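Researcher: Re-running this chain for the archive, since the previous output was lost when a drive failed. Same request as before.
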Amino acid sequence: MARPDARPDPRPGAAIDVGELDKTYPGDIHALRGLTFAVAPGTVFALLGPNGAGKSTTVKVLTTLSRADSGRAVVAGCDVASDPAGVRRRIGVVGQKAAVDLEATGVENLRLQGELYGLRGATLRRRVTELLDRFGLADAAGRVTRTYSGGMQRRLDVAMGLVHRPEVLFLDEPTTGLDPESRAGMWDEIGRLAGDEGLTVLLTTHYLEEADRLAGHVAIVDQGRIVAEGTPDALKADLRGDAIHVELAVPVGDGAIVTGALAGLDPAVRELVVSGRSIRARVDSGAAALPSVLGALERSGLTVATATLARPSLDDVYLRHTGRAMHEAAAEREEVAA
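Model: Regenerated structure tokens:
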């Protein structure tokens, strides 16, 4: 763990600058372990990882809702430890749980949020009208938000985070629980934020497609550490070849059986990971290798239920750096929590 006084020099020009953050909760739960990254102004940056990876803890530290044990965090030019008030004036936050008052109307929610940041009179009225129009809520502005759909409530939540024109917007799992149509609509709006307003957006998500579609830069988080970082395309391009995923009819008790069955195949199988019924591997040419893989497994007495072939994904990147798929990591955390 970094020393309490270990505060590396800040990187000039970064909208968010995080260096060697550590955070441990009671019970010796290490939420952050030397987390380090920087976010360029006017970009969408995604922290991608399974539930329990440390993403929400990072947001809490950066939005001054929690204090790190050590390390450095600067947001919009303000140190979160020494100038938390400055940080709060410059950021918008949309948490996992909606901040919408369900007994107030859409207009009332936005007005109250604006007043908390010192907006008044015509300036506030113009901003509220602008946001209601932008998020497609003008027709429902006078309705009590309890009557809104989940997607409408989430759009209002994001609008509330923008009412005071922040420099940096934090979106913590913004589409969790939304139906596919509402999620797609939210993706469209998030994608416009950086381009239209020059806003810096830090997005946390466990949806691979969400990070791939929205973020110009992705940091993959596992157990409080960043295990891979870069543009989605660059991270995937680093994985040569194709991904093969095989589900067996029954779990394999000993992964050595699979390793032995696939040894010496041409084209060669590499980066082989066996977990229960699941077999994941990388090959240079999927079309050439898949028949050989299936034949070798059948000859070893392993019955294949399904087999898929795909280009590299962010889940494959996560698998490369952690040795397990993201859904497997999430399941592990749920077992520990239980």
